[in-house]
């Protein structure tokens, strides 16, 4: 892809009024570009080109090509260089294994350059009958490179040994222009008088799939003229693993959306536009529609049923600019002493005429040789909506800043509880978190974000949980693997009932295409084998969520039950005063959601419920919670019942019964001894044959009671029932103490 600076009719670069957004300004923005940019200013460069197959920004000179790796984006990275032959450059791309450089020299010739040997050869088209529009490399097993010509597609296999191209297949079509993205592996070929008839091919690693021919909608102008569609009016975007085609209709001022399936192309509504020049970006599966002339951006989340924007149109801001740049901008004068990293007033301009937008989330300032990356302000987005469940669902789907999204979800939910919002509202919010966590456990995405040591512990604690990835559901997973039967039934808007669907990796959208029958069979098998129908545990180690500490490996914003306890319920318990009934009601709603998703909850949450009820002396209600199995039996719960039962005999009895029910005889006996009920503990030990507690504990408890009869009874018990005890030092010591106590009583 060549990046050209747009010129006006006089041949001079057109200018626009600066629209400067500063990090220190009062303006609100949901999207921004972060300083510093990647500087790619090369002397005597013939232009900038973008190789989306390898995520390379290229700047060729007469005999060299400078390349910057921009995926992942690093503004401080330096370029690598390769030697090339002199000549005109229309397009340039590296092969996917980066061993070969292909350069389009003219409308009929491509030159190939072997980076290792330096050898080169040229491939020429027939100049009398066809014109070369462009080319791209593929990872297909059948071919390596595709040439797009006015006569159709030529699929070639590149031979490194023979330094030649071998024709594999030809697709004969009339082509006016084309659009292609490596992310989708999809090429759309425009034809017809208005260039609104399209043929599509997805050339993936396993197969080449031809889409049905389709036409794009175009409104007629008042003069009844027929507008012609241009290449810059069509965008291919990949969102949540699904491939969409977006088309600008300037007459109707609409952006039409088309969903691409294996056997159909379905228009899925239209979005309003407010500018003649439109650009599209995708950041973390969020669609950014840039209204370039209006200098604002509108965000859409296509996962939701609604086509309403996430927020109102807002400007794009620069963030992190150095003080030298901001001071020069605010005064309107350029500083002569700016260092090499600072921006001039002409460089810090949003939506300049020289901006060229790159797939999926980059923009290149061709005039100033700068590359910026778009980012989302999740905090500003979450603060701009009062629909809390929708905000939480949106945040749970984020992956690029999963840790920040997780902290925002925890903070929002904690605030709801602290502000005593209606229980129904808080219940909906908590249900979003629980459902998202359940889905992430079933798909394995939650464990992908954990460190290896945490992951192993999580797998061990997820007793019975299916943490392997579910068989790929055809809904929303691949470009054309769904059948039109499901499309016409209206299911294409509702890709999943799970709110926290994780965005798919790049390769999913380039998978081999299934036919309609295979897709329907896959749906049936996934429904029958879904882990949602079986119980699974969800003991997961608490992940570190320290404020301001970003974990790069975290790829899921899902929140475990233990994190909900540690960062929501426990802090709220410390801050709230008065009647704890409200917090108990919220916790019960959480337990209800966890039960529906068959997620086990750690005992510390049940312990908190006991503490809250006992604090308010609601022992009768506490008893009902235990009898109705709302509190899951465990050692921790039993011990807390015993602790809280110091003021209520019935509650203490519930704790004792739970210890016996769980078969924790050792803990029960030890607790009795610690509480001074050592004689009762001896009787219980004899009845249940508990021999794991040292005799010294019983003897010391009897000695502390200062009752010689009790001490004698304990000594007699161990002498009779513990073989060899009479010959131990413990027996001799306490026998001597007993004699001393009896002597003192006699005196």
From TrEMBL:
Chain segments carrying region Disordered:
1-20
Segment forming the signal sequence? none
Domain of life, per lineage: Eukaryota
Any one GO BP annotation for this protein? regulation of autophagy
Which GO cellular component does the record give, naming just one?
late endosome membrane
Q: Which residues does the UniProt record annotate as the domain Regulator of MON1-CCZ1 complex N-terminal? A: 48-165
* Residue span, Mic1 domain: 542-719
| Residue ranges that the Swiss-Prot or TrEMBL entry lists as coiled coil | none
A Pfam family that this protein carries is: RMC1_C
InterPro entries named in the record? RMC1, RMC1_C, RMC1_N
Q: What is this protein called?
A: Mic1 domain-containing protein
Q: Which organism is it from?
A: Clitoria ternatea
């Amino acid at each position: 892809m060549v990046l050209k600076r747009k010129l006006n009719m006089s041949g001079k670069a057109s200018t626009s009024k600066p629209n400067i957004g500063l990090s220190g300004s009062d303006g609100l923005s949901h999207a921004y570009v972060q300083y510093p940019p990647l500087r790619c200013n090369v002397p005597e460069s013939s232009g900038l080109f973008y190789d989306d197959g390898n995520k390379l920004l290229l700047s060729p000179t007469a005999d060299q090509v400078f390349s910057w790796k921009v995926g992942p984006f690093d503004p401080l990275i330096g370029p690598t260089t390769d030697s090339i032959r002199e000549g005109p450059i229309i397009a340039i791309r590296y092969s996917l294994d980066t061993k070969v450089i292909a350069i389009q020299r003219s409308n009929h010739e491509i030159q190939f350059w072997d980076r290792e040997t330096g050898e080169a050869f040229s491939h020429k088209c027939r100049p009398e009958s066809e014109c070369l529009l462009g080319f791209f490399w593929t990872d297909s097993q059948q071919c390596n490179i595709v040439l797009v010509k006015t006569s159709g597609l030529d699929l070639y296999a590149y031979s490194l040994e023979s330094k030649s191209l071998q024709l594999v297949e030809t697709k004969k079509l009339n082509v006016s222009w084309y659009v292609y993205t490596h992310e989708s592996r999809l090429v759309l070929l425009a034809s017809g008088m208005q260039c609104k008839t399209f043929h599509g091919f997805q050339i993936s690693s396993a197969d080449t799939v031809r889409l049905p021919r389709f036409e794009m909608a175009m409104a007629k102008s008042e003069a009844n003229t027929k507008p012609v569609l241009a290449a810059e009016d069509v965008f291919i975007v990949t969102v949540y693993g699904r491939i969409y085609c977006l088309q600008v209709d300037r007459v109707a001022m609409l952006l039409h959306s088309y969903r691409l399936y294996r056997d159909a192309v379905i228009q899925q509504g239209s979005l309003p536009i407010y500018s003649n020049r439109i650009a599209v970006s995708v950041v973390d599966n969020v669609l950014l529609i840039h209204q370039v002339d209006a200098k604002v951006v509108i965000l859409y989340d296509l996962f939701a049923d609604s086509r309403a924007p996430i927020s109102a149109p807002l400007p794009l801001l620069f963030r992190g600019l150095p003080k030298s740049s901001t001071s020069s901008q605010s005064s309107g004068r350029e500083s002569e002493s700016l260092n090499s990293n600072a921006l001039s007033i002409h460089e810090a301009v949003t939506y300049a005429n020289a901006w060229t937008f790159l797939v999926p989330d980059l923009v290149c300032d061709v005039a100033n040789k700068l590359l910026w990356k778009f980012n989302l302000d999740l905090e500003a987005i979450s603060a701009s909506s009062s629909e809390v469940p929708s905000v939480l669902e949106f945040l749970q789907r984020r992956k690029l800043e999963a840790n920040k999204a997780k902290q925002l979800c925890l903070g929002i939910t904690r605030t709801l509880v602290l502000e005593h919002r209606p229980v129904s509202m808080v219940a909906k919010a908590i249900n979003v978190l629980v459902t998202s966590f359940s889905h992430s456990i079933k798909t394995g995405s939650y464990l992908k974000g954990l460190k290896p040591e945490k992951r192993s512990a999580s797998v061990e604690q997820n007793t019975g949980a299916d943490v392997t990835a579910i068989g790929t559901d055809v809904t929303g997973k691949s470009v054309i693997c769904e059948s039109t039967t499901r499309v016409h039934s209206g299911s294409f808007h509702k890709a999943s009932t799970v709110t926290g669907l994780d965005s798919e990796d790049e390769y999913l959208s380039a998978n081999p295409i299934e036919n309609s029958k295979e897709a329907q069979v896959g749906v049936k098998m996934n429904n029958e084998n879904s882990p949602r129908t079986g119980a699974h545990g969800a003991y997961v180690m608490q992940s570190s969520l320290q404020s301001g500490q970003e974990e790069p490996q975290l790829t899921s914003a899902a929140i475990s039950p233990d994190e909900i306890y540690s960062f929501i319920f426990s802090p709220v318990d410390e801050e709230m005063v008065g009647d704890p009934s409200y917090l108990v009601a919220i916790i019960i709603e959480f337990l209800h959601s966890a039960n529906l998703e068959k997620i086990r909850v750690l005992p510390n949450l049940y312990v908190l419920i006991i503490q809250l009820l006992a604090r308010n002396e609601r022992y009768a209600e506490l008893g009902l919670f235990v009898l109705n199995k709302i509190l899951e039996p465990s050692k921790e719960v039993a011990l807390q019942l015993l602790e809280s039962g110091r003021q209520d005999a019935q509650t203490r009895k519930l704790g004792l019964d739970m210890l016996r029910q769980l078969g924790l005889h050792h803990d029960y006996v030890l607790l009795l001894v610690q509480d001074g009920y050592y004689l009762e503990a001896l009787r219980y030990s004899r009845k249940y044959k508990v021999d794991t507690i040292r005799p010294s504990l019983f003897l010391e408890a009897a000695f502390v009671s200062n009752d010689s009869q009790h001490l004698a009874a304990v000594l007699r018990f161990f002498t009779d029932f513990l073989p060899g005890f009479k010959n131990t030092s413990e027996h001799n010591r306490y026998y001597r103490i007993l004699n001393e106590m009896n002597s003192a009583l006699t005196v």
